[in-house]
Write a structure and sequence with these properties.
Bug_dom1, single chain, 10 strands, BUG, 18% strand, signal, 11 helices, Tripartite tricarboxylate transporter substrate binding protein, TAT_signal, ten-stranded mixed beta sheet, alpha/beta
Length: 331
Amino acid sequence: MTQAHAASRRRFVSTSLYAAMALAMGGAHAATDYPTKPATLLVGFSAGGAVDQVARLVGQGLAKDLGQSFVVENRAGATGTIAADLVARAKPDGYTLLLGTQSTMVVAPGMYPKLRFDPVKDFAPVSLIASVPLVLVVHPSLPLHTVQDVIKYAREKNGTLNYASSGPGGPQHVAAELFATMAGVQMVHVPYKGEANAIADVLGNQVPLMFSNLPTLLPHIRSGKLRAIAVSSLERAPSAPSIPTVSEAGLKGFEALTWFGLYAPAGTPTDVVQKLEHGVKLAMANPDTRARMAAQGMKVEASDSATFRQYMASESVKWGDLVRKSGIKPE
């Protein structure tokens, strides 16, 4: 190689390296400045529900911490997967986010084999925000008071015992299927168009039992219209400490929660994810926010991104296996 060629090559490498460093610094600077404009927080369910309410609390907290609006946009349908698909395909810059649930992110992928997104690979988990236990209830006319009573009764019914749910793939449905699987019994799923309709028929003794969110059922339990058997969390619920857990009542390790988490598209800069994570933690530390969530029976989690990623991976395996083995299908 001639001296002229060598000098030319050195200038090319030097210029290329400088350009690469400038680009990297420019990208880092852009991420550090985040956010410089309003962001959109997509929700895969209708306005007014629990997911929507959590999203608005989180959006308000992020706006307060980061100085920009986080606008909640409802894109309901297909167990929340319409909204999730939009976020998975969005530019990974932190301006399009998802308030996801276990139904969308770890149950739906097994129900909808043609989904265009992978909940583990296509998202950057930001924070597990909160969780809500479910409670197994029966109509008080039944001679059932414990988990073992329910298991024995299901065996006596020989696969004909009905249970209600808000619809295929919802937390009520998968909790009951996990219960049946771990107990080694068979029960018949009776899906309804929403939780309220399912509860109405259990109250009327048209269907003998169901799992549903504890806050929703507590008034009926306290009035004696329904009998609580056990809660689905590993620990007893602070709002109902006298109700045992399914795990302590016989099915060791049983856990089925309704949970809510914040997601960004995969590839979102790490410092943007960290800013969002910090914003969630501040929002969840606010006494008014905590009080409002506690009033809905929610346990504040506010995890870091790494912990949420690990949780997502384990939940995906757990519920994916259950959906396949139970043959859970969408309507």
